[in-house]
Amino acid sequence: MTSRAAASHAARRPPQARFERIEEGVVTLIARRGRAPDTPGEPASAHEDDDGTLECASRLCAHEAASCDEIEAAHALVRRRYAWRGYDIPALPDARTPKAPDPAPREVTFVATQDDDTVGTITLGLDGCGGLLAERTHGDAIAERRAAGASVCELTRLAVAESVNSKSVLAALFNVAYSVGTAHGVTDVFIEVNPRHVAFYTRVLGFAVAAAEKFCERVQAPSVLLSLAIEELERRLFELDRALAPFGFAARAA
User: What is d(CA 64, CA 113) in angstroms, rounded to the nearest whole number?
Assistant: First the structure.
């Protein structure tokens, strides 16, 4: 079965089943990446990271935020990191407000923990009747991709603690987001970033500019819309996983 056909088959499973075994799915995904990549190329160098503390990768664990405490810890990290950069903090849902069970949640928040501390978070936004948050700023580019038959999603509320190795945390978070995205048959991933971060996302994860710089009202800052095909994201994650494997990342990225 091809990867696209497998994703389509998985998308037809009951919504609850798609989220029950995220850990197993990511471990299987990483094990499958143990074979040689389909596309030749050197892995991302483990020595190119920000702070040279890749030993910390062995203590990382990324998973869906399931409890109120985990969701609140993710929100607190987003608030702190956005405020540090001078951005307006986007409205975040109240983690402790009782809600009716949602059989098909449009947003899934993931956290990366290290020694029981929340050191990273990202939210996967699935397409739905309300569209994507990024469409408020870059609606034309996303609508064009959707009209061409793409199944779109977005990554939002990305934050990494200042005291940890950013590349290993991002790899862990993107791995679990990828696992859930493919279960929903996603073909194209969008993310809004500050213009100064474009080079990092294009170099490390292979994103390409999908729409030029505009002003994002949500965070009161300029943003550039980036996009990436899900197959290319898998290839880039393979390279990151392989680079981090000597530090124990692969065994803990779930």
Answer: 11
